[in-house]
Amino acid sequence: MKNKTLALLLLLSLILSACNLGAPAPQDANALATAAAQTVEAVLTPAASPVAAQATPEASPIPGVAIDGTTAEPIDSAACDESNIIVSWERDGATYDKKAVDTPLAPGSNFVMSWVLENNGTCVWDGNIVFKFTDGTRLTLQDEIPVMPSNYRIRTGEQLTVNVQMTAPTAPGSYETSFSLVKADGESIVNFGVLTTVGNTNNASLAAPGDLRYSYDCSSGSVNITLNWVDKADNEAGYRIFRDGAKLTDLPAGSTTYNDIAPGSGSYQYTVAAFNAGGESASKVQAETSNCQ
Fold it and tell me: I need a surface site. Which of 48, 82, 213, 268 has the fewest CB within 10 A?
């Protein structure tokens, strides 16, 4: 019986030892509570997360988007699209078309070429842009002419008006001249070709205006000068009016009167010229308005 009891005690001892294998069993109640608390703390405290590898962005074939989708490449903001539309093109206020090209100018006469351009690109035009003579017969005194103040800007959808005073050659004939609008870096925005026909000063086959006279009125505060003449030509394309050598306008064939508002009181020389493809035949009159106050 003693042997059986001893065997049972030995077996129970082995089972208890297996349950605490590798750690000494607590000897009292306080030690047991402390061990339990340390076990709970270990469960609630997470282990440190491994550091993730940082991706190195590579060059992207699509501007502004990196290959990894996280870092954008800088976009070249200097690149822009240069484009424009010529809205209108005039000489002395009239459309510059084939009829205008074929209409002869008086030798050495002054005229004004005008363009209205619309910026329909993405580039901004600034005050450094110049109107530049590039080839052909010279019509301007300067090779480069500024077209707007230095602080002006013409952005997409906005328009720029360019007016340039020119002088016709002194000899009869047909002339070609090339101009460009050029930016500060030398890039051309647009190119212009100007064709000029110069007629003979006197056309024997074309009768000059007859009985050219003037009258004036300054009662309104302005100096209004009226020119009247007799249409003696039967083959004119029209009549051309000048004040002190500067062209004012072209009138249709058959015209016999013109009203001008002078800059102020004084003396002015008016020229009325019948013109056609062969040239001009002119009459002149001196208008005196010095007594206008």
Answer: 48
